[in-house]
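Listing S7. Sequence submitted for prediction.
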Amino acid sequence: MEKLYKTWAEIDLGAVRENISRIRNRVGGGVKLLAVVKADAYGHGMSQISRAALDAGVSWLGVSNIYEALMLRKAHPRATILILSVGMAGHASALVRHNITPVICSHEMLDAVSHAASQSKKTVDIHIVVDTGMGRIGVWHERAFDFIKKASRVRSVRLQGLSSHFACSADRDLSFTKLQLDRFRGVIRKCAKVGIRFPLTHIANSGAILGLPSTSFTLVRIGIMMYGVYPSREVIKSIPITPALTLKTEICFLKDVPRGRSISYCRSYITYRDTKVATIPIGYGDGYCRLLSNRGEVLVHGQRAPIIGNITMDQTMIDVGHIPGVRVGDEVVLVGRQGENEITVNEIADLTGTIPYDVMCAMGKQVQHRIYRKGKATVA
């Protein structure tokens, strides 16, 4: 088969399953797992990652909105899907019709879901979101009990879950995370006193799973760690994980460049010696951050090669003068391991002043060709 792509992502589904298994061992068999597959599974491919996660024993799949939920429902008709972000009242009928579980934190959405469920003669499971300090969606923790009491009396809905979200669980200082945990427990205690109990309570994300095992409750949401990336460099690395993503391209052009020549737009790099410069077919249009210009490195023949000059929309130049035997067509690793060297998502995040989530989503969204590895099998 003719190869029509020059840049591609290789996704190791075996690594995803192994990471899930390690997380399972950490939280214990009595805790359910929700695999966060929003944003096209952080750029890894929502349908394929969801299949691997379900095969590995996760109970839930988490998405961002109704559009992702409907795509996922088509690919996995029997999966249990939770929309993690607040929905619009106009989406209520679709939620009910396609058996998708919403999070609720407004009277408007509660009424809309109840009405749609009544119209369909169904009872719909909902998860209440409590804002314990994230300051995003959710009912403020001081007012959550009153909201939950009202929701418990609404016909056609069933209080299946109570959730919240940590603001900084991947930081070294976990004092605010512990405060959020105390607030969440306070809401649970108030509800229990009047007989309101939730089958599922969840607040733990990847950082909390690693650093605060007491946050697991009955369900944990596994996101970035499932893909083999730690949420920050500060987090406690209490679970070994394996990166699932390798981003590759190949050298498309190679030339000798004398000392004193400028490279790329704005002449931001001048060669300080006679060297060889290779061009690779990836740029900021492919989600490869322009801030890596004159800062980042790639791997060629297992050695680090610096990016020189400004990264352009679809091409990047690298200095390979110190690497013998380089040819057009040679494989280049931008994220992942080659030989004894490795370039991690966290390294790129540090160089560009962002977070690993941003790096993965940006590249994953733009790099269209993915190759999935399932043990010895490879699926394009």
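Caption to Listing S7: primary sequence and predicted structure tokens for the chain studied. Residues 245-343 form a domain with the Lyase, Ornithine Decarboxylase; Chain A, domain 1 fold (CATH 2.40.37.10). Residues 175-193 form the longest helix (19 residues).
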